[in-house]
Amino acid sequence: MANTENKADAGTASQQREIQQRQDQADERAKQEKAGSQSGQRQGPVQTTEHEYPGTMPSQHLAKPGLEAQMQLKPEFLAPDYAGSGKLAGMVALITGGDSGIGRAVAVLYAREGADVAIVYLDEDQDAIDTKRYVEAEGQSCLLLRGDVRDAAFCRDAAQQTHERFGRLDILVNNAAFQEHAEKLTDLTEERFDMTMKTNVYGYFHMAKAVLPFLKRGASIINTGSVTGLQGSSHLLDYSTTKGAIHAFTMSLASNLLDQGIRVNAVAPGPVWTPLNPADQSPDKIAKFGQDTDMRRAAQPQELSPAYVFLAAPSCSSYISGIVLPVTGSVG
After folding, report:
1. Is residue 296 left, alpha or beta, with left meaning phi > 0 and alpha meaning psi from -120 to 50?
2. Above pLDDT 70, what percent of the chain?
3. Among residues 180, 321, 323, which one has the least CA distance to residue 247?
4. Which distant-in-sequence residues (6+ apart) come within 8 Å of 35 by Cβ?
5. Residue 19, in any domain of the structure
């Protein structure tokens, strides 16, 4: 009996080694084929639709806060393949940082879904006027509100003006942000840390508090987080800190407002081609922006905006609150 078992064990071990050997040989062949086809070069950007998205960006550096109108390669935000179906019909959205980038793309899709839109922006008048034109082209009204989200009084006034203009307020998208890289912790001054914290965290707090008196059951707040808030970033110490705080603020506020029927969620984008980034990174670094993701490219704003529709629309996400939805261009 033991002899029979020994033979069975030996046979199994031999079979496992044969499987291993075949896989080792297959791995070596694949390695050689990959080396031959790439000739040592990195593969191009991953495309998951028929549309070709760029993998290399212009070597450009913008003055802050960054104008989309001045970008050599204009972000794609119109989402031509997205057909509206009235998911937000009759609703009103207030979007901070709505003049460009993700905010502009969200404003366009919200309008396409039937919502009127109020846009808060700092001083990028031309971008804001352009966005207003795109919203109105979708058949909806757009209110422009110029000011600084660090100022609680301005935030209260923005919410009040939005409600007075449209008679209701259903959706807040907290999206305005400040970002500036730093190679070392010692490069971060208290002044800079305050600017990042008060724009990215205090601004979200001020706006959420300002709109709350106008929100009714079925309303929602959507915060823009970041992959840096999930993973950290060695050169974006203060920015990553604020984004982690935004994720925690999202989950906490979701619990706080749940019994009122108000949902609170966040989207955590990976690298997205918006004025924020060429207004931060050097021209040589921005040329490779997004290439370290699994997709080997940055997202375009129109690849993010449908997630904001999903989280805002009661017909899509009435049972979802307190999540941080990652849209990062990487697996997992």
Report:
1. left
2. 89
3. 323
4. none
5. no
| CATH value at residue 152 | 3.40.50.720
Catalytic residue (choose from 204, 239, 308, 319): 239
Out of 61-70, 78-87, 199-208, 241-250, least confident range = 61-70
Side-chain-side CA neighbours of residue 66 (13 Å): 25
121: annotated active-site residue: no
Can you tell me whether residue 167 is helix, strand or coil? Answer: coil
CA atoms of 112 and 140, how far apart (whole Å) = 8
Is the alpha carbon torsion for 275, 278, 279, 281 positive or negative? Answer: positive
Range of the domain at 304: 90-327
The secondary structure of 231-300 as a DSSP string is H--TT-HHHHHHHHHHHHHHHHHHHHHGGGT-EEEEEEE-SB-STTTTTTS-HHHHTTTTTTSTTSSPBP
